[in-house]
Amino acid sequence: MIGYTCKYAPVELLSAFGAEPLLINEEADNFDCAQDMMHMNMCGSIKALIENVKKDGVREMILVNCCDGTRRAYDVLKDQMDFIFLMDMPHAVNGCSRQHLVDELERLFTAYHDYCGKPFDLNKFAESFTGAEKRPDGDYIGIIGARVGNGLHDQLDDLVPLPIRDMTCNHIRDMEGPDRNVLKRWNEAAAEGNQEDGTPDYLREVLEWYAQRLMTQMPCMRMEDITKRRELLNDPHLKGIIYHTIKFCDYFGFEYEMLRRQTNIPMTKIETDFTMQSEGQLSTRIGGFIESIGLRKERTVRLMNKDGKYFAGIDSGSTTTNIAVLDRDGNVVDSATCRTGAKAQKGAQKALDSLTKVDPKDISLIFATGYGRMNISFADDNITEITCHARGASHIHPGVHTIIDIGGQDNKAIRLDDNGDVANFAMNDKCAAGTGRFLENMAKVLEISLDEISTAGLDWQNDLTISSMCTVFAESEVVSLIADNNQIADIVHGLDKSVAAKTMALVHRTGGKGPYMMTGGGARNIGVVRCIEDLVGEKIFVPENPDLCGAIGAALFAIDAAEESAEKIS
Amino acid sequence: MSRTIVDRFGEYAEKQIDRHPARARKLLARTFRLYGNYMRMKKSDQLPARGYQMQHCNRAMAASLSDNGRKSVVVSIFTPCEVMHAMGLDVVFPEGLSCYMTASHCEKIFLNEAEKSGVPESFCSFHKQFIGMVEKGVLPKPCCIVNTTMVCDANQLSFRYLADYYQVPHFVIDVPNDWNEKNQEYVRQQLQQMALFLQSSSGIQLDEQKLKESMELAQKGIENYREILRLKATRSERGRLTDLMMDSFEYHVLLGTEETVESGNRMIRELKELPEVVPDNQQGVCVAWVHILPYWQESMTNIFNHNENVEVISGDMSYDNLDVDLTGGDPYEKMAEMLLKDSFNGPAERRIERVLRYARDMHADGIVYFCHWGCKQTLGASSLAAKTFEEAGFPTLVLDGDGCDPRNIQDGQMVTRVQAFIEQLEARRR
Fold this sequence. Notes:
The structure holds two protein chains of two kinds. By secondary structure, chain A is an alpha/beta fold. Chain A has helices at about 10-15, 30-35, 45-55, 70-75, 95-115, 120-125, 150-160, 180-190, 205-215, 250-260, 280-290, 345-355, 385-395, 435-445, 450-455, 470-485, 490-510, 525-535, 550-570; strands spanning about 1-5, 20-25, 60-65, 85, 130, 140-145, 165, 175, 240-245, 265-270, 310-315, 320-325, 330-340, 365-370, 380, 400-405, 410-415, 420-425, 515-520, 540. The longest helix of chain A has 23 residues, at about 490-510. Chain B is about 55% helix and about 10% strand. Chain B is globular and about 60 Å long. In chain B, about 60% of the residues are buried.
C-alpha cells in the first residue's frame, strides 16, 4: 500500500507498477506524535496524517507539494519510510507548467521504478483510472472546502437527510482514462522497444497526456486560477453547502468568505481540527442548518387531541435546563430553570417537576431543544436551539433581525429574515473564548461572583484591552493585570470588550443587522451587553427572561404540531 | 502601565485610520520618513551605518504609502525586485509594512479589520495586517501585484485577495521546490514574462542596461553582506533586533539598489574599526536567530538590544540567498537560480544546514528558533531543526511568538524561556 492525501497525487502512474494507492483520510485520536515531530500549531490534517502513518505503519507515501504543511510532513517522515516522494505540482496551468509537471512525473517514474523493480504496465495504467466521481442522483448537500475526515463524513451522512457530495480538496477527483485509440497507439509504440537508457520512449507522450489530465481537474485553492471552482455551485441539485475549514489551514477561510458574500445557496461553516467532533455541537449546527433550509426529517409526532391545553418547550443547555409552558394562544403560563447536571434527562425531569402553576399531566406535547435535546425520552420531538431561538425571539420581540446568544459553552449569532425565519447563523468553534464559560473562569481568577462580574466593568476608568485571543492566554494576561495593580473595573471592562469583539465576529459572519436581541445567560451580563451595543451602534433588546427564549420557541413548535395534527384529524 | 509616546501615537493614528484613511496614510508616511531622518542623525550606541540603513528602509516604507507620483508594485518578500528597481517602480511588501505598523502601535485596527473580513485567525499576521490596511483604505492602489509561490502559503491567498480587491493585474512566479537546470529554465521563462507583464501594467519601458546595473548592484550587495557576516564573526556590534530585520529587507526586496550597496559599504567600514574580540575575548553570549525577530516586543528588546551580555549575531532571513553569483549572463537566469537555491526553498534540511554553517562560522553559543504564529513552514520543521542543532552542539530554544500581532503571544512566558536559555548558554561558557 502506498499512502496519498491529495487529488493531484499521480496514483495511476504508481498503479501501473502494481502499487496499491490508498487515500489516508482518518481523523486522529490525539496528536502526541505529530506535536513531538512538528508543532502543535500545524494544520490538523497534517498532524492526523503523521499520526495515521505511525499508527498504521505506512511505509510508502506519495505527497504533493500542495502546502507548507505537506512539505514539512515530507521532511519529518522522510527518514522513516521505505519510499516517499514529494511531487512538485505547478500552481498555474499552461504550456510551461505542464512541461514542468511532466519532468516531475518522469522523476517519480524513475524513482518508483528503481524502488520497486517492477516494469511499467501500460494496461494496468489505463485500467486504474476511475473516471469522474459520481454525483448523487437528484438533490444533494455539498461539502466544500478543506478535506473532511472519514469519521466526520459518516457523521454528516447521518445528520443530513439528503445525500451528501464530498467536493473538498481531496475529492472530486476527475480522471478519465485514455480512450482505446490512444491506448492502442501507446501499446504499439511500447512494442517498438526501449531507448538505450531503459526508459520507454513512448513515455514522454504518456506523461504529457497524464499531466494534462491531472492539472485540469477542478482546481483546489492553492492553484493560481480558481475561477473554475464556480462550476461547483452551478448545479440546481445542490441544495445547500456545508463549508469545512481546518484549524491552521488558511486556504479555505478565504473561499468561504467569498462564497458567503456571493452565493445565494444556503451555507453553513464548520471548523474542525481533524479529530472526531463532539456529536452535540455538530448536530446542533448541522441540524439548525437543515431546519433553516426546510429539509428537516419528517416528524413522527403522534396525532394529538385537538383540545390539548398546554404545550411545553424544554431547552437542555450545557449549564442550565429551562422549561416554558405555553397555552394554545402562545402565552407563557409557567416556566422553570434548573441546573442540567450530568444527565440531560434528569435535568429535564427536574425542570418539569419544578413547575408550580401547571400540572405536567395537562401538558399535551413537549418539544426539546438545546444540547441535550436528543436525550430526553419523554419529549415528543426535538428541534435545534438555532431554529427554536429564532422562533422564540420573533414571538417575544417581533421584527428582530439578529439574535446574539451567549451560552455556557457556545455563542451564536442568528440572522432572521423578514418572516422571522433563520436566514443565516454562526457559532463559535471549539475554542471557549468569549463564551459564558470564559467569563466564569475569569470571575474565578478575579475572585468575584458571576453576578458581580456582570456589572463590575461598568465604572471603568482606564480603557484596558485584553489582547489575547485564547482563553488560557487571556487568563494569564488578567493575572498580570492584577499583579500590575489595575482596577478590577478596568480589567472586567477589558474582558467585556473582548467577549463583545469575539461575539461580533460571529455577527459579521452572518451579515447581522438591527434590530438586535440578546438571549442566553450572557444577556444578563450588563457590561457585555453595553460593549456589544457600542459596537453595533444601537440599543439591544434583552427580554425579561433571556434564558427562556429557546424553550419558548420549542413550545411554539409544539403548538404548531398540535395544530397540524388537529387539521389532519378534522 | 504607563503609556509611551508611541502608544499615544498609535492611538491617534488608529483614530485617523478609522475616520480619514487618506489622511492617516500621509501621517504614517511622514512619520516613517521623519523617524528615519531622526535615526540617521541621532547619536547613539549603535553604528552610524545602522542610522543610514534605517533611513533607507523608512524611506522605502514611506514611499509605499505616499502619493509621490511613482507607480508601485505589491510583492512578496522573496520576489526578485531588480527589474522593478531598474524600472523605477516602488516595491511594497506585507512583511515590511506590517512590521512598521506594529512598531507604530497601530496594528490592532488592521488586524481586527482583516478578521472582520473573514481572514482566518490562524493566518500569518503579516499578511493579515496587510489585508487590514487594504480594507481600511490605507494602502494606495498599486499598478500591479507580483508574488512568488515559494516559502509561504499565505502568498497564494493574500495577493489574490488584493488583486481582486483592487482589480489590478496579478503575476505569480511558480517556484519549484528544488534546484535543477530544468527548474531553473522554468523559472527563468516566468521571470522574463514578469518583465513584460510589469511593462504592460505600468506603461514604463524596461531599459536592459538599467537591469544590468541593478543586477550588478545586487551582486555587490550580496558580496557586502557576506563580508559583513565575516566581520561580525569576530567583532561585536551590540546592535538591536530591528537591525537584523532591516537587513532582511535590504537583502531581499531592496537588493539591487544603490542605497543597499551604500548601506553595506558603511557597515563594512565601521565594522572594520571595531576590535576583534570573538572568540577569545568575547564578552557575553552570542545567539544565532532563525526566522522573524520580535523587534516590536519591549520585553524582548529589553533583553537583546545593546546588551553586553547577549548579542543576536545573525538572522537567517538575511543570508538565505547569498550562495549565488549574479555577475554576467542572463539576468533572468541568475534571478531564477537565486530563487531556487534560496535556503528557505526546498527541504527543511537546506535551511537547517545554512543556519548551522553560519552559527559555526560566527561562533554562536546557541540558536533561537522562532516560531512565528501561523508560519507552517517554520513551525513544521521546528522539532527537526532543534534536534539537528542540538546534535551539532548548539543548545536551541524553540520560541513561540508573533512577528507583529501582540495578541498571539504570552509575554511573561517568553521572557522566562529566553532568560533561562541565556543562563543556560552562560553556564556552558563558564
